Amino acid sequence: MAGPRAGRLGTGGRLKRERPWHRETQGEWMTFDIRQAGLADVPALRTVMDAAIGQLQRGFLTETQIASSRAVMGLDTQLVEDGTYYLVESEGRVAGCGGWSRRATLYGGDTAPGRNARLLDPAVDAARVRAMYTDPAFARRGVGRMVLARCEAAAAAEGFTRLELMATLAGQPLYTAYGFEPVEYVEDATGGAPVPLVKMAKRIEPAACPVG
């Protein structure tokens, strides 16, 4: 079965839109295509995020904690403006989204406190993986892994050798399977109820990301 492929880089370091990825799920073949998100995509992205926050955290958090998590989760439009945010589509529908950042903010949407737009130094800092969400209808179909592969390729091409992210309990199994390791367990009570989160990190190999 074909797995996700990291996007190749074209002239000027811009990521080319990769060929569609086909995956067999429950006896049916689905086609997934990943591309850079634009500001026009923001409403559709927010719809996916809202559904993911409300549904995929059940079983990991209480309803009170899920409501509290909305205070810090969601889209950081700086990622879209920086050109480091991607969406995965299947037959015209947004199946998931996520991105990476060369800025210091580790997690949080536009209204989250503690944001820091400082540019990171690839020689000493870890690139951030940010705002990973999957439409519940496409959960466990490889969408998140596809986005992670694209983020890793792009960050490595800019000289980063490490990735860091702040995982929800619902997202932690995906990141663990992709090679991330837990660094720190924290709680964020910005929304009222404490929400458990896991800071995770992964080393990456720049040489594995071809430039063409």
Automatic annotation (TrEMBL):
<protein>
    <submittedName>
        <fullName>Acetyltransferase</fullName>
    </submittedName>
</protein>
<dbReference type="Pfam" id="PF00583">
    <property type="entry name" value="Acetyltransf_1"/>
</dbReference>
<feature type="region of interest" description="Disordered">
    <location>
        <begin position="1"/>
        <end position="22"/>
    </location>
</feature>
<keyword id="KW-0808">Transferase</keyword>
<keyword id="KW-0012">Acyltransferase</keyword>
<dbReference type="InterPro" id="IPR050832">
    <property type="entry name" value="Bact_Acetyltransf"/>
</dbReference>
<feature type="domain" description="N-acetyltransferase">
    <location>
        <begin position="32"/>
        <end position="205"/>
    </location>
</feature>
<dbReference type="InterPro" id="IPR000182">
    <property type="entry name" value="GNAT_dom"/>
</dbReference>
<dbReference type="InterPro" id="IPR016181">
    <property type="entry name" value="Acyl_CoA_acyltransferase"/>
</dbReference>
<dbReference type="GO" id="GO:0016747">
    <property type="term" value="F:acyltransferase activity, transferring groups other than amino-acyl groups"/>
</dbReference>
